[in-house]
Amino acid sequence: MLPKDFLEALSQKHTKSNTFPSTSAVKELFTDIMLTLFPEQTQRHYGCLDELQEAFDQIELRLTRLLRSMQKHLDEDARILATNYIQKLPEIYRVLLTDVQATLLGDPAAQSEYEVIRAYPGFYAIAFYRLAHALYEMNVPMLPRILTEYAHSKTGIDIHPGADIDEYFMIDHGTGVVVGETTTIGKHVKLYQGVTLGALSVSKEMASLKRHPTIEDHVVIYSGATILGGETVVGAHSIIGGNVWLTRSVPPQTKIYHQEQVKILN
Amino acid sequence: MLPKDFLEALSQKHTKSNTFPSTSAVKELFTDIMLTLFPEQTQRHYGCLDELQEAFDQIELRLTRLLRSMQKHLDEDARILATNYIQKLPEIYRVLLTDVQATLLGDPAAQSEYEVIRAYPGFYAIAFYRLAHALYEMNVPMLPRILTEYAHSKTGIDIHPGADIDEYFMIDHGTGVVVGETTTIGKHVKLYQGVTLGALSVSKEMASLKRHPTIEDHVVIYSGATILGGETVVGAHSIIGGNVWLTRSVPPQTKIYHQEQVKILN
Amino acid sequence: MLPKDFLEALSQKHTKSNTFPSTSAVKELFTDIMLTLFPEQTQRHYGCLDELQEAFDQIELRLTRLLRSMQKHLDEDARILATNYIQKLPEIYRVLLTDVQATLLGDPAAQSEYEVIRAYPGFYAIAFYRLAHALYEMNVPMLPRILTEYAHSKTGIDIHPGADIDEYFMIDHGTGVVVGETTTIGKHVKLYQGVTLGALSVSKEMASLKRHPTIEDHVVIYSGATILGGETVVGAHSIIGGNVWLTRSVPPQTKIYHQEQVKILN
Amino acid sequence: MLPKDFLEALSQKHTKSNTFPSTSAVKELFTDIMLTLFPEQTQRHYGCLDELQEAFDQIELRLTRLLRSMQKHLDEDARILATNYIQKLPEIYRVLLTDVQATLLGDPAAQSEYEVIRAYPGFYAIAFYRLAHALYEMNVPMLPRILTEYAHSKTGIDIHPGADIDEYFMIDHGTGVVVGETTTIGKHVKLYQGVTLGALSVSKEMASLKRHPTIEDHVVIYSGATILGGETVVGAHSIIGGNVWLTRSVPPQTKIYHQEQVKILN
Amino acid sequence: MLPKDFLEALSQKHTKSNTFPSTSAVKELFTDIMLTLFPEQTQRHYGCLDELQEAFDQIELRLTRLLRSMQKHLDEDARILATNYIQKLPEIYRVLLTDVQATLLGDPAAQSEYEVIRAYPGFYAIAFYRLAHALYEMNVPMLPRILTEYAHSKTGIDIHPGADIDEYFMIDHGTGVVVGETTTIGKHVKLYQGVTLGALSVSKEMASLKRHPTIEDHVVIYSGATILGGETVVGAHSIIGGNVWLTRSVPPQTKIYHQEQVKILN
Amino acid sequence: MLPKDFLEALSQKHTKSNTFPSTSAVKELFTDIMLTLFPEQTQRHYGCLDELQEAFDQIELRLTRLLRSMQKHLDEDARILATNYIQKLPEIYRVLLTDVQATLLGDPAAQSEYEVIRAYPGFYAIAFYRLAHALYEMNVPMLPRILTEYAHSKTGIDIHPGADIDEYFMIDHGTGVVVGETTTIGKHVKLYQGVTLGALSVSKEMASLKRHPTIEDHVVIYSGATILGGETVVGAHSIIGGNVWLTRSVPPQTKIYHQEQVKILN
Asked: CA angle, corner E146, sides to E125 and D152, nearest 5?
């Protein structure tokens, strides 16, 4: 027999009913949204406009039901939120196609849009981020985070749903990338594996401030670079070299490289 | 037809029966333990103390059967080990609640205990580590490693089940974290992504020695820092900056930062 | 109702039939190949040579059917390719056993071949790489990348199927490792977590050139090291220290360490 | 190798695409309709009117999509048919509750409505018949038959979806019951296992005529009785005994028993 | 939108929580009991006494939890009932082996005990009846009926869990067999397909009386025979011919045959 | 604790390894054979002759492996038997198409070949019988019976795999049909629900004799008729009426009807 106080403490948690949907229900719905937008990833296709519209109608209803189950955490009626969300999909789709384009142009190994959509973890993580961000903007709690953590688990790329990321975004390889909640990223930005866009300080009082950097258009940030702080701005067309550690702003067109100090014994 | 010597070599392995349980059986049981301890992660709740006690009784029996199938690798009877293990759950649970607390206080973005339990990979990896460590302490082979590798696969956080980690432990983002087998970590320690607590030398003869560092209470280690060696001690209340490479001890209250050398072209 | 032009654009993609197999079909087949070669990972064993040969015959046919469904992307008849692929399995198997051996000898914590095969993500990633590389050499498109990305997703280790890696290869911990498409790696090479073997430039015109480094025999590369460029050669028996950033060749027997510059405040 | 003419004949069938939905998709949707109408059979409940309405909205859309996939076999647009079908559910539900009532009153062993809904194959077969009949009336081909055959397979009760059956219908035990396409059954009719309401002649020319009997209100037909022919009318309040073979009409209030001729040797 | 009164009526049912376990949970547990008692039906075997005892311990706990979820319908504590039930399994098993024996001896086509256990629907239905009857005797509601209806659905054999059936019982083919709630069957009785042991009257007031016949030892009842009435006794060693309709008692050793009246036109 | 002698008796059965394949493996393979021969029942089609041939090659290998697992019960090598079996499929297919034709012509309600294949339990049971009979003829034990019992469970139609049934065979409705092991059925025979073609005596000594009737060409047997005995021959073009009980031969062209004796009270 286990101690009664342990069981009683646990029992209190068990008897509170869970007012958020299960992770698997969230994953399943948003994976289906992905597969409807990117049929490259599946064998199940829709043959005509009616079928496609009805597929989205069904997605809208499944989202309504998901949101309905957490209605008390929402600002508006579940159905209205779901309808609004679906209306955002064409724009999300348009932006995701720019992301595909960015990867295709930016990686010598990429051979086709099809390959980017099928096999690039960077694209996968960005897609889930964009789907999550739209929920985040509607003040839906928990769900955005569940979505980006799902993508994090599959790709090692951790983009907070609150980040603000413009079009033509690309992440190559991507394992270890961290993009913080209040990060702002412009157009045509490219990140490599292990890049951190993080906070300098993590005191709880700062929760409502901009704690993460701003990356302007056409910036490239190589693997392992770390850029920290809410007031740090990386000017447009800059290149941040691998392993660079940056905690202050740099003007546009900056090229900054990690100056290696090594000791050689041979 | 494949070469006969290939088939014969393979056949020898196939005819040896597998004396360890399948990975999926291990994952399934310990995931159920997680869901019983943290009903936040599931929709399946237990309504009364009897049900809860019986849920643990069933877990005990499932563990007995898992261990029974590998009895010949164990120091004690499967049933006794299983019973002992279940008796440890209340303490594991207590400590995990301190870990939740640490994350809630340590991450400005975290909004509730519920969110930490539901959506933080750091908590997930720590929880599997603590469940695995308790098996490791009972000299159960293979299983602890299977558990921590499962969490590693989901989170990118690789904590060896042999590490010794005290309460109020927190890992943020976490991808790329490595905590070696003989690491010792005090209370209120916080790690960020990409931190390695590793060995300096990896010669086989050292297998039984302490090869990994000691981190005292209230230490914070920022992203990408690497701390190596069994005699390296990071004193209490120290802060190890991002990307720092440390192979010797530092006294309490040390703040050590990576001094960036960069070349700027703009 | 969603905008008609959005639906029409999407509909065009949906009506093109998918001429590559589903990711789940690919994963399932190659996982079964893994489990047939390494029965340590499963409870399903084959009792006699006939059964084993027939298991491979069935794998050959399943591969034929997978390839048949993408015949128009192939240089040769699906059946011939599948037969050739199966004939390569004994050699792939032989090399993978050297990789197991390398890990067993190279990690003090590893206790048996069985443990390496069951619980080391490095081995898992290498095994999928070797299976994918054999397809890559037969000019089968998409599939090799799907396989290595699957392993990437599970392990955080991203090895391009085009890389050329000799026997006795070992990766420890592994999260964040990136090995580029034109990398060449000799025998007895050991990588730790976070190592990048990458390209210096990523312009599209370079797609057909050697863009990634050459690592000769018996080299060890510690965690977080980055080695870039198609003309960079790391000579045999060299040791590249953790966090080293290397963009030029080093002769054999070189030991190169990251010279830490730190600022200490205590 | 199989004969080429066999493969070619088969190939012709394989290349015709299937313009009816899969049996499993049909079963799944209508099982969900059942579970929404009769939550006694499931653990998944809907907490409020909104959720319930949205559950039906989703059912309507799933039905739309099922019908859309077979649009070319339909008289009307899939969406209109689906909407009309859902509008019929309240009436189908009302009638099914009368059937539950009839069983509860007519079987001494039945203890509650709950038990009838959970555990009576007769009720299950009638429910699927009523759901199928509403589709049949809308000239939807194949689906009604797939539904009643599914129920037949589970219960041994074979009711053609074309039969016309009024409220308070009850079947006890039911295995072997056959109710033909043009059968008419009044209110408060009760059938036992093995009852056939069939055709006398089965020539193809009769396909469009009434070939099966009419059973008026308050008739009881005991096990193994066979009633045949489109002009056969069993008058109201009649009782047809077990094993009776009837091919002509009987007036109301008739009680007809099988007169056993037995040979006894003892 | 569906009519509000319909939704409201339905909503009342949905908000009542279901206090009986799901059919699938019941089926799964008792199927596992079957497979533990008759490993002939499965590939999962237990290697030693400890494993076997622990398998039953786990079954006991799973039954406890099933019963716990319906505690308010039970006379005693779920755990006590479950323990008592498991204690009955050895006797149920002993009797089932006599049933196997009876089939093996009674069907010329049966070739081994193994075949009877693997492939005879009669044995399957009897086994589920015996497992259900033991619950019925403990006044557990609903579950016994769910079990026998499950077997009915698979075999077409409908044995009420309340029937009282002695050892060496055999049913051949079986489709259409009905055995009523208050039937009593002696040792060494053999039934063929389509046999009904039923009630003469079905008025609700008779619910608590013996409404179904008594069949004494060593009786054979051929296909399609119907025996009705609570006072009808078929004496030991009697043979009831196919299609016989019997509503009164016959003394021991009776042989009664259906005297066919046929009209021949040729 | 359960009694030791019970556990020991059971343990003996558990430690004997099961030398027949699991029922689910058998069902799965033969269901796939069905779906390959009758793509009407599935959405998975094969596009070209190569794919079709390879589908059969895979079926052949799966059958080889199934048979290999029970090699010690077979007269010949598993691979040879499997190859021979596949060679029989074109003829089985040809005959099954005659059965479809017979149903289409013989049931006024049948509207297309497609409907017969999709929704007629009679066709389903015949198809499984024909697939099982071909195994039976090769002296493969257990499997044929497992297949026909599977169809029995789904349709209520129990055809012994040993029966000898010629082409253009049709069963309508079918629940309760029993066709015994040594039955012989000619061309163009039609059975309705509840027909038994059985044995007169069931003594074990008769196991190797013809115990079941012979039905010549163009015979129709209506619902509930019973025909018994190994020497009973129903001459060609005869019609056996519903509920007829026949234990002796009738010449060709016979029409025999059950002469109902009824007692009417009205």
From this structure: 70
Beta strands in D83-230, from DSSP E residues, in sequence order: 158-159, 164-165, 170-172, 178-179, 184-185, 190-192, 196-198, 214-215, 220-221, 226-228
CB-based contact F155:F134 (threshold 8 Å): no
What whole-number distance in Å separates Cα of residue D133 and Cα of residue D136? 5
Please determine, for residue C254, whether its predicted confidence score (pLDDT) is greater than 90: yes
Q: Which of residues 127-156 of C touch A (CB under 8 A)?
A: 141-142, 145-146, 149, 152-153, 156
Q: Which residue of D has its CA nearest to F119?
A: D146
Nearest to F166 by CA among F240, F115, F216, F119: F216
CB atoms within 10 A of CB F221: 27
Read off the pLDDT of residues E80-113 as tens digits, 9 standing for 90 and up.
999 999 999 999 999 999 999 999 998 888 889 9
Q: Are D252 and D216 in contact (CB under 8 A)?
A: yes
Structural contact between residues F209 and F177, judged by C-beta atoms closer than 8 angstroms:
no
CA separation, residue F3 to residues C221, D151, E35, E61, E85 (Å): 62, 43, 19, 18, 14
CB pairs under 8 A between A and B: 153
Residue D249 CA to residue D244 CA, distance in Å, equals: 13
The answer, yes or no, to whether D and E have at least 3 beta-carbon pairs within 8 Å is yes
C54 touches chain F (CB under 8 A): yes
How large is the ipTM? Answer: 0.94
Distances (CA, A) of C56 to A119, C50, C88, C255, D228: 27, 10, 12, 45, 59
Distance (Å) from the C-alpha of residue B49 to the closest C-alpha of chain C? Answer: 37
Backbone angles phi, psi at D57, to 5 degrees: -60, -40
Chain mean pLDDT for chain D: 93
Cβ atoms < 10 Å from Cβ of F97 = 17
Nearest residue, CB atoms, C155 vs list B22, B153, B211: B153
Indicate the burial class of A116 (C-beta count within 10 angstroms; 0-12, 13-18, 19 or more).
buried
Assess D61–A contact: CB distance below 8 Å, yes or no: yes
User: Rg of chain D's alpha carbons, rounded to an integer?
Assistant: 21
Q: Could you read off the pLDDT of F99-120 as tens digits, one per residue?
A: 999 999 988 888 899 999 999 9
Q: Are D163 and D133 in contact (CB under 8 A)?
A: yes
Nearest CA in chain F to C52: F65
Is-contact C226 C193, C-beta < 8 A?
Answer: no
CA gap A48, C256 in Å, rounded: 62
What is the average pLDDT across E116-134?
97
Q: Going edge to edge, which strands form the sheet with C178-179?
A: C158-159, C178-179, C196-198, C226-228, C245-246
DSSP strand pairing (E255-258 vs D262-265)? antiparallel
DSSP D52: H
Residue written as tokens 């958020």?
A: A20
Strands (E), chain B: 158-159, 164-165, 170-171, 178-179, 184-185, 190-191, 196-198, 214-215, 220-221, 226-228, 233-234, 239-240, 245-246, 255-258, 262-265
D25-29, D120-124, F47-51: which range is least confident on average? F47-51
The Cα C144–Cα C123 span in angstroms is 17
Contact C68 F54 (CB under 8 A): yes
Report the alpha-carbon distance of residue D188 to residue D103 in Å, rounded: 10
